[in-house]
Design goal:
CBS-domain; homodimer; 8 strands; Arc Repressor Mutant, subunit A; 2 domains; 9 helices
């Protein structure tokens, strides 16, 4: 639920100086007690404020102050991303597979000699190549990777909902988080369906569901 | 936000008989208008009701009537699960990999000759085995699979939050959905981080976030 300007002001006053009486709050706002009565009723009933007789209003401190919906909209990629694992485009498929196991990730990002994003390697790509192929040491990853401009990416400041939608639409398990520069894309993070699953759980936990 | 008993009653009255004035609602509840004023204010501000001058209150019809929190708690595995892909424990690793690509899944469930769940195969298991191994046709999957009782599973009626928590805790990408029988576990579904990501998006969509 959205609070209006006056309700937000009241909430701020009580947060700062509570417990405080309705009279005192009204005074601070240059209003009479009767004017703010509905606002106090709303704030109390919605769980933002608690009231105690002969003490006054105090801030409930409940996390219900932000609704689950608001939390969800406010989730940013930057707050949930993981560390990216990158390999040079010249390494072999064999080394890439070893790297994937070593770091225990499902996706590797491939960078060119200027350190810009040039490709993506999934477990699926590597499994497909390894099947019946005995010379994995001799194949460089740039031969099998998904390459720019076919890579879907996102930025730190994108919402988690945006990233989730991209992964579902493109049927992929992760996205590189990048900074767009003139020379190319610098990889600064990795967002995965595991991050989304963790965010889903954190929503429930933060709101004590 | 949780509605109290009176607010729920008001909502029901407006749903049934709206548009209806505040006076009329109060009358139905044997209360005076002033008593229900804060309730009406809350219901309106929270988007449950709309008010129009000289017409009265009417039901907004928005899906916000169920809070995002309630929707989230109510999500069941059975409503989001995918079709499981199963292989017999006697098939070769090579055939399992082919099956995985054919069905485009990240996990295969392995069943014994009585069709009960006996193991799980992830892309990671198969990639590890295929690395430098030229005789994938000769290795049966039961040699490399994760086997009972080390398999984490869930049931249709479990909440999606429960399944998400299990996947995060166990660091796995999917769970078999089973029916527990005396003879063993019958596999009836598959729940993955993709399903959780889709559920996360559906929450936002259903509530028009």
């Amino acid at each position: 639920m959205e609070l209006n300007k006056r309700q937000t002001e009241i909430l701020e006053i009580v947060k700062m100086d509570g417990p405080i009486t309705g009279e005192q709050i009204a005074e601070r706002l240059n209003l009479v007690r009767a004017t703010i009565r509905p606002d106090l009723a709303i704030l109390t009933m919605a769980g933002y404020l608690d009231a105690r007789p002969r003490v006054g209003y105090f801030y409930s401190g409940k996390k219900t102050v932000q609704s689950v919906a608001d939390s969800m909209i406010g989730m940013k990629v930057g707050d949930f991303q993981s560390i990216p694992v990158v390999v040079a485009d010249t390494v072999s498929v064999y080394d890439a597979i070893c790297q994937m196991f070593l770091e225990d990730v499902g996706t590797l990002f491939v960078i060119d000699k200027s350190s810009n994003l040039s490709g993506v390697l999934s477990r699926k790509d590597l499994l497909r190549t390894s099947l019946g192929n005995n010379e994995l040491e001799k194949i460089p990853v740039h031969v099998i990777m998904t390459r720019m401009p076919n890579i879907t990416y996102c930025k730190k400041q994108d919402t988690l909902l945006y990233a989730a939608q991209k992964m579902i639409d493109q049927q992929i398990d992760s996205l590189p988080v990048v900074i767009e520069k003139e020379e190319g894309l610098e990889v600064v993070g990795r967002i995965t369906k595991t991050n989304i699953t963790a965010a889903f759980l954190s929503l429930a936990e933060d709101h004590e569901l």
